[in-house]
UniProtKB/TrEMBL annotation:
InterPro entries: Ammonium/urea_transptr, Ammonium_transpt, Ammonium_transpt_CS, NH4_transpt_AmtB-like_dom. It is a multi-pass membrane protein. It is found in: Cell membrane. It comes from Acrocarpospora macrocephala. PROSITE patterns: AMMONIUM_TRANSP. Residues 417-439 are annotated as: Disordered. GO terms for cellular component: plasma membrane. This is Ammonium transporter. PANTHER family: AMMONIUM TRANSPORTER MEP2 (PTHR43029). Keywords: Ammonia transport, Cell membrane, Membrane, Transmembrane, Transmembrane helix, Transport. Pfam families: Ammonium_transp. The keyword Lyase does not apply.
Length: 439
């Protein structure tokens, strides 16, 4: 089939937008950590790009999207060999066979960016205390054993797709998947030294707002791009993304004002991300009024959900569970009530707009199945890594700062003035006569 140049151009742009989300996440997460671990936090996102790209090219695409959707296709591929190993077959078969006119390699690149950010999202739960090498190993194993199978279940013709689950852009595949894994990994590594006693506030809210802005910007490619075409549904997904995100951000800071007496920059950034997460599975299926409702629910519920870690006594450093797991569930389950525009075989409208209750059942089953699978496999993989190579840095390295002990760098080389001279964290002392530190 002839390539549709308009749709292909849009999908190339959307792919770049989604890839930008991972550096955006690095800023968002980096600003939320303490200053002594900002570089390590950002590196965990950046190295996810490297690790997942390699795995995707070698076998990830083939596992997620080439396996048959007959319930046994994924296992058969593992046993009998993988199509398009190394993406070799995607060049010769230039366009997808769905009539979209999109090159297969463009589709594969778009899906790769989803796999990358899903892995990177998990890292926020274990900030300040994970060995970098162990994270690299975990990223490769988790993508292989969890992300690729789940992407196949929902988007690659697997059993959840056959049941008619609706997940437009990854509420179940990305956010519930990553959120459940984050909870498991937080339990494996345990709490940070001094958690619950020492202040562990974000060290740079400017970076947090910058990261949230980049995530918001890139998310238009994430959601609107998931239509894989340029049409009315693309516009609907785009507009719903904006509506839900803005309203969730506003709802979060209203909750803060009523509950705490003040609205915060961290709150508006976190609320925006919660809205983005919740509208992700629903953006192409619901009317704008429903997107507004989803935004209100996400901003309000997630504002309270991030505090669950203190009541349940687990250290999810950067609130991956409270925002991504909870927000993803809100969006996925909401489709069982308000989905108005189902378009795939087996999908139905939500019960509030005349659909059957069976669709609500599927929208509950999907998050439960994916959440349990991700949690159990992640916990097992995390424990194996911890027992073999060790997953957590020593307490001494954690207290000193993981940036300097792991990467031999510091995020901020501002220098310290003493009576005897001016010392720099990354260099020798400067004589006191200098009276300044070079910018």
């Amino acid at each position: 089939m002839e390539i549709d140049t308009g749709s292909t151009a849009w999908m190339l742009a959307a792919t770049a937008l989604v890839l930008l989300m991972t550096p955006g996440l690095a800023f968002f997460y980096g600003g939320m950590t303490r200053a002594k671990s900002v570089l390590n936090m950002m590196m965990m996102s950046w190295v996810s790009i490297v690790v997942v790209t390699v795995a995707w090219v070698l076998y990830g695409h083939s596992l997620a999207f080439d396996a048959a959707g007959d319930g046994t296709g994924f296992v058969n591929k593992l046993v009998g060999g993988l199509d398009n190993l190394g993406l070799s077959g995607l060049v010769e078969t230039a366009t997808k066979d769905d009539g979209s006119g999109m090159p297969n390699l463009v589709f594969s690149a778009f899906q790769l960016t989803f796999a990358i950010i899903t892995v990177a999202l998990i890292s926020g739960a274990i900030a300040d205390r994970a060995k970098f090498g162990a994270w690299v190993v975990f990223a490769a194993v988790w993508a292989t054993l969890v992300y690729f199978p789940v992407a196949h279940w929902v988007w690659g013709g697997g059993w959840l797709a056959n049941l008619g689950i609706e997940d437009f852009a990854g509420g179940t595949v990305v956010h519930i998947n990553a959120g459940a894994a984050a909870l498991a990994l937080a339990l494996v590594l345990g709490k940070r030294s001094g958690w619950g006693k020492d202040p562990m506030r974000p060290h740079n809210l400017t970076l947090v707002l910058l990261g949230a802005g980049l995530l918001w910007f890139g998310w238009f490619g994430f959601n609107a791009g998931s239509e894989l075409a340029v049409d009315g549904t693309t516009g609907l997904a785009f507009m719903n993304t904006q509506i839900a995100t803005a309203i969730a951000a506003g709802t979060w800071i209203v909750v803060e004002k009523v509950r705490d007496g003040h609205s915060t920059t961290l709150g508006i950034a976190s609320g925006a991300v919660a809205g983005l997460v919740a509208i992700t599975p629903a953006c192409g299926f619901v009317d704008p009024w429903a997107a507004a409702v989803i935004g209100i629910l996400a901003g309000g519920i997630c504002a309270f959900a991030v505090g669950l870690k203190y009541k349940l006594n687990y250290d999810d450093s950067l609130d991956v569970v409270g925002v991504h797991l909870v927000g993803g569930v809100i969006g996925a389950v909401a489709l069982g009530f308000v989905s108005a525009y189902p378009f795939a075989d087996g999908q139905e409208k939500g019960i509030l707009v005349g659909g059957p209750i069976s669709q609500l059942g599927v929208q509950v089953l999907g998050p439960v199945a994916v959440g349990l699978y991700s949690f159990v496999v992640t916990y097992i993989v995390g424990k194996i890594i911890d027992k073999t190579m060790g997953f957590r840095v020593t307490q001494e390295d954690e207290v000193t700062g993981i940036d300097i002990t792991t990467h031999a760098e510091t995020g901020y080389d501002l220098g310290t003035i003493h009576s005897s001279g001016v010392t720099s964290p990354n260099g020798p002392a400067v004589p006191a006569e200098a009276k300044k530190v070079d910018a």
